[in-house]
Specification:
Largest sheet: 2 strands, antiparallel
Helix content: 40-55%
Number of helices: 6
Number of strands: 2
Radius of gyration: 18 Å
Shape: elongated
Strand content: 5-15%
Structural class: mainly alpha
Strand order of the largest sheet: 1-2
Order of helices and strands: HHEEHHHH
Length: 143
Amino acid sequence: MKRKRLSKLARDKANPKSLYWRNKLIALWSRAIRSRAGYKCERCGVTKRTNAAHLIPKRVWFLRFDLRNGMCLCPKCHQWDVTGSLDYSAMLFAQWLFQASEPTWNNVRTMWMETLSLANLAMPKRPDWKAEYDRLTKELSER
């Protein structure tokens, strides 16, 4: 009897560490951050083409999909405005964040402390994206 071959999509869905689950997780996290802000830039108030921006860089993988680590920004505030963007002048952005949004600033400070306390732990090369997706879906449904 000949075995039926699975499609690439079916194989990816079956593998919890596949890029399929990472991409679904990125989309879910982004939608949650933008929805929380009412699809409005939290810095200037623009409502067109908003992005979900990470306050602590994405390379810190255990905070990558933490809802405290996101902020809704327009493209100008996120990247292209050199005078006050998150990506190009982090110090000016941090100064604005401290003055404008104390709860967000406190979240960032708490997350940096978590990062420093976990810095010596061995991090897996590729996390279980499906488990992270399920955790975030559950967290969002409880809200």
